[in-house]
Design brief:
Structural class: alpha/beta
CATH topology: Metallo-beta-lactamase, Chain A
Number of domains: 1
Largest sheet: 7 strands, mixed
Oligomer: single chain
Bound molecules: zinc ion
CATH superfamily: Ribonuclease Z/Hydroxyacylglutathione hydrolase-like
Strand order of the largest sheet: 6-5-4-3-2-1-14
Strand content: 25-35%
CATH class: Alpha Beta
Number of strands: 14
CATH architecture: 4-Layer Sandwich
Length: 245
Amino acid sequence: MQVVILGESAPYPAPGGATAGYLVQTEEGVFLIDCGSGVFAEMVRHISLSALKGVIITHYHADHVADLGVLQYAVMVERMRGKRQEPLIVYANQNPPEKFLEVSYRDHVKAVPLQSDSRIRLCGCDITFTDANHAVPCLAIAVESNGKKFVFSGDTGPSESVEALARNADLFLCEATWMMHEQGSASAGHLTTLQAAEMATRAHVKNLCLTHIDPAYDKEAVRKEAEFFFQRNVQIASKGMLLEI
Ligand SMILES: [Zn+2]
């Protein structure tokens, strides 16, 4: 299993960058987790749209869904041109319902509702979920394939359920929205570097990669701070990065 970082900025992209979007690639195909600002343009640098087997949406903040409308149009055009036969399936948080209803598009994009106890199989992966601790309903995701486990935190504050989902993960892709010098202004529903490192330590994850990084931050400083708390190597997500699991 491979994960390609399509974007890591939050809540808005760095110059030339992108917000949340992650491709998961197996021998059986490729799917996308979240579709934020700039993600579509980066995605089609790595795969052809016709190869995309499905999409998972954790929640409906713009930094995770801004390019969903672009994706809907692109799938429509591909199908009109005969490059794609089947509609695109988007597994999307069923809450709030009025947002979920916007995910389907004519007969080109079909939305399938997700909740914390959903289980889906996609590209040979068993995928499970749990509720993250965020300002709006948000799901964390565990992807398991061939004995390997990849977990994405979604957007979350400290959460026992996300920590349990991440237990023994080969790769934990975890949000870290705040550096410690700004922890006083840290909003609920997000993690500091310390909190992300604490969750990863308690969950005994093998590898930690931090994402959801403020474009104003120096990534090297974020990495050093996280490694101080994690006491092991930490990767910081960046657009185009390939992570082997
Ligand atoms: Zn976000």
